[in-house]
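Fold this complex.
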Amino acid sequence: MADAELKQKVEELIAANPVLLFMKGTPDMPRCGFSMRVVQVLDSVDVEYGAIDVLPALQPLREVTAEISDWQTFPQLYVNGELIGGADIVEEMFESGELAEALGVEQPEVSVPAAAQATPPAQSPPLQIE
Amino acid sequence: MADLAEIRQMIEAALPGAEVEVVDETGTADHLRATVTAPQFEGLSRLDQHRLVKAAVKSRFDDGAIHALSLRTGPPR
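Structure:
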């Protein structure tokens, strides 16, 4: 059973912030690769968002979000009061353009966040001499 | 540290007919990535698709075998 006071506080925060990220660490200093990936996506779509570091109260916040959204892992991105997802879903929706749509912003022209660019490309095709 | 074959079997057992691939992302077998294609995902949001997969392997999160499971899910095309 989640702490009722904390749960109410979290619900107020979700209601007050159109775009709210619960993450490990801060946008300037993420303390988890998954949280960092979501920060990179949000920065690349250039949207204003609130960020909450869950590390000081990790377990109580897990219990709260389990009750609110049936989701216990962080990061968690909320848009207009609804849970969008964690890093995997946020990235997938960013790549498809669904995230920009949900946020009501333009899809950036370079639609690959830094994290995806850092992934080594598939083996390049052999060079061909014409 | 998780047994990748067991993780795959747990997902397949929860989602009969699913195609499941489980990869060890870090070489330490506790940060895994799974691609799951399952007919049960038809019509479900991504959140609900992920909830089904996470529920299938919850016991391995709870006992600490898995720290992170990155997911890509969808119905068969």
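The mean pLDDT of chain B is 95.
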